[in-house]
Amino acid sequence: MTLDRNSKCWCGSGLKYKKCHLNFDEKLESLELQGYEVPSRDIIKNNEDIEGIKKSAEINNGVLDLVAENIKEGMSTAEIDKLVYEYTVSHGAIPAPLNYEGFPKSVCVSINDVVCHGIPSEDRILKSGDIVNVDVSTILNGYYSDASRMFMIGDVSEEAKKLVEVTKECLEKGIEAVKPWGFLGDIGAAIQEHAESHGYSVVRDFGGHGVGLQFHEDPFVYHYGERGQGMILAPGMVFTIEPMINAGRYEILIDADDDWTAYTKDGSLSAQWEHMLLVTEEGVEIIAK
Ligand code: MF3
Ligand code: CO
């Protein structure tokens, strides 16, 4: 079924189809006929969605800036949670992790051998030498944003610093691989290549994800893989890239008591950086970081 050229576009922009997503659809249909995996319409954001997601991301960025200013040795991870919660609600937003599938706090704080989904606690005090990921996600007017950064507390070993730096480079190389009408697999390939060239490994069990109207949407963004494979990246897609890189092997374990905290199975250090991106006609825009 094809939409009449003069009907309103399916994206909800209110524009005529011929002035909006007609060319886009023709391009995707032709790629699909050639056997490529293409995004479905429900993950293509219109301008109104993008505006809403950007406003949510402004708050998310503000939360991470606040954490950056305040994080220090001697502080408990529960204090980070409190900072996140108070800033978020005082800006009219909601911390997305809070009660998400039973997650009990407003932010994930993952230290040293914790890969992701660390639960803030009064009992975990930041100490010199810790490498800490703070993963912040925000809902504003129904729009979701998501980003995470690493922080190094006090005197950090050269080994840990190197892991944090290379993981940041992995994210940057992943972002550089994002091209409109390119492939999702290009992202994972770039990340995996860089991580493994330093003797590190890429966590398999978690990936980036579409985001915006929900916390986790399609596609699953692999941080490993092959160029020229996977879904076509089309303008209007919003997703995260958030590589978790282990100094040792990539296998993980989930804490049996809390069912959330993911550790490296071999006890090695793990780092993660996450940005949220918009694919545009021209390239890629970083929305949350
Ligand atoms: N912020 C995480 C992500 O990057 C998701 C955390 S789920 C939670 O996708 F419930 F633990 F918050
Ligand atoms: Co995410």
UniProtKB/TrEMBL annotation:
The keyword Hydrolase applies. GO terms for molecular function: initiator methionyl aminopeptidase activity. Transmembrane segments: none annotated. It catalyses: Release of N-terminal amino acids, preferentially methionine, from peptides and arylamides. Substrate binds at residues 117, 216. CDD domains: MetAP1. Keywords: Aminopeptidase, Hydrolase, Metal-binding, Protease. It comes from the Bacteria. Its cofactor is Co(2+); Zn(2+); Mn(2+); Fe(2+). Pfam families: Peptidase_M24, SEC-C. A divalent metal cation 1 binds at residues 135, 146, 274. A divalent metal cation 2 binds at residues 146, 209, 242, 274. Its EC number is 3.4.11.18. Residues 51-281 form the Peptidase M24 domain. Binds 2 divalent metal cations per subunit. Has a high-affinity and a low affinity metal-binding site. The true nature of the physiological cofactor is under debate. The enzyme is active with cobalt, zinc, manganese or divalent iron ions. Most likely, methionine aminopeptidases function as mononuclear Fe(2+)-metalloproteases under physiological conditions, and the catalytically relevant metal-binding site has been assigned to the histidine-containing high-affinity site. Removes the N-terminal methionine from nascent proteins. The N-terminal methionine is often cleaved when the second residue in the primary sequence is small and uncharged (Met-Ala-, Cys, Gly, Pro, Ser, Thr, or Val). Requires deformylation of the N(alpha)-formylated initiator methionine before it can be hydrolyzed. NCBIfam families: met_pdase_I, PRK12318.1. Monomer. Belongs to the peptidase M24A family. Methionine aminopeptidase type 1 subfamily. This is Methionine aminopeptidase. It comes from Clostridium simiarum.
